[in-house]
Hints:
Chain A is an all-alpha fold. Helices cover 76% and strands 0% of the residues of chain A. The longest helix of chain A is centred in the middle third of the chain and has 39 residues, at 177-215.
Amino acid sequence: MGRASYLWKRTGFALMTVFVAITFNFILFRVLPGSAITRISRVPNASPALKKALEEQFGLDRPIWDQYLLYLKGLFTGNLGISYSNRQPVFDNLMEAFGNTLPMVSIGTILAIILGIAVGIHSAVRRGTVADHVSTNLAVLFYAFPTQFLGMMLLILFAGVLPSAGLHDPFAIGMTPWEEFLDRAKHMILPVLTLILTLYAENALIVRSSMLETLGEDYVLTARAKGLSRGKIISSYALRNAMLPIVTMVALALGAIVSGAILIEVIFSWPGIGRALYDAVLQRDYPMLQGGFLIITVVVVVLNYIADLIYFKLDPRVVD
Amino acid sequence: MITPLPVSPASGETRRSGWLTILGVLREPTAAIGLGILALFSLISLLSPWLKPYSSRVASCAVFEPPSPAHWLGCDDGGIDVLSLVLEGGQVSMYVGFTAAAITIGIGATIGIVSGYFGGWIDTVLMRITDYFLVIPQIVLMIVVAAVWGPSLEHVIVVIGVLMWTYTARIVRAQVKSLRERIYIKRVIALGSGHLRIIWRHILPQVGPLLVASAVLAITVAIFNETALAFLGLSDPTAITWGTIMEHAFNRAAVSTGAWWAIVPAGFAVAFLIMGCYLFGRSIEDALNPRLKVSYLSPFGWQLRPLVGRGKDAL
């Protein structure tokens, strides 16, 4: 298989996945007991005529295929419906929430990856020593704590020291841009810290076993026989080859990142996409729930696609 | 001219090795500790109705009463003994974790074995489906399905079980694919054995240890997901699980009153059980991975002797 065909295949797969998610989203909310109409038309003195009018307005009286096409058309024009709870377009709500999630999650994830790689390499090259046992067991322990538990513990520990909720101080007026930046940064510390603690452990454990696998390869033995220094062997021989599973790990950890982010946003009242999803669940705001699921799926699929491209760049052999 | 295939008496040896690995793994302290924790938690949760000092439904002390000799782990927002809550919650959480893991292993093993054994277009189709499930963010899908379906413990179990089998399916498939090329399988096929019999008698016992490892690891994910769904209010509101204990504590101001005893016991119970499962499951997986047996950059000086496995097992 050639390079171009590999890239086409991955692109096709990514597009197909998004399409499957879109269709699933459509079907899932159509098999609900009761439609959107049963909810809205549940008002005093609702007549069958009102129900009929509403059904016509939402296009629910048409055949399912027409509804599906209508739904697809809506999606491509950025129309995800109207939120039940605040009467704003779902798309606008989600974009605003996404903008709040992105900085927190990306900073946390990147720091967790760096920390995980450092800890993982550190214990792999010292396999069997006290340092390895301590750091591996610590990682297993942090891996074992549920995200919400770590978040709540940090909240109790830092109560009063660091801000515990929201994006910024709602009562601060007339701050200079620098002060405002500091205020926002301070609000970000606890959520980011929770995300790092949740994610670093799994990363460290995967990097450790990936490094251990490469350290058993013959080229490491050869490098050592040539008299290369430890640092050189680790950085240019072992780590380079251990990078492949690490990229996969980051791609597969996306699910963990998403679930971690949802729990963290709920705990720290962070007005991001996870919090939006949570509120949608509580208020049974189906259009928001549907839109949130779709947007998170699309983001995760795109990031997976990027991981595939990086993988291809690191190891062109994957095409075979 | 047909020459008879040499029949080596050693062929049975490689076939038993899988289960021996699990027994061998238990000699390692981490695996033994892991299995010990798992056994201890199972025992405690089975005996929890008799171990509970107080009722887990009726108030027996003051609101957020700190730990005392009468109430070892203090009380929650409703004046209910936390120790009793955690004991009962453990029973339900472990039930959710074990059944969801069983569903996962059932689906994952079936798809993995069928895909790896039959190959061809069946493999392509099944692996493509697996790829989709792998990419779609599962927790979000779980939230959506649980929200649409309505909160109930059975729904949570099914949702978790049905959505997280991808990992098992992939590792089982890889193993079965390599098993299929082994000589003894080819011999059995040549003897005219049916597919079902080959899978049941010759493939399944070989993937057994891998399934044990992946079942134990699936329990960790299932319990994590249960606590997450419960924390988001998607579990049965009347059931007591470790997840709902933490949810109630958070929603009823245990954090702002500093009542750590309402949160810590459940959190640590989850952490210890998951550590136990992880240590045990990981040890089996590592023992099945021959690539981990050698390290050329060991801190213990220069050695060509393998780090793991002596005598006959040595690589």
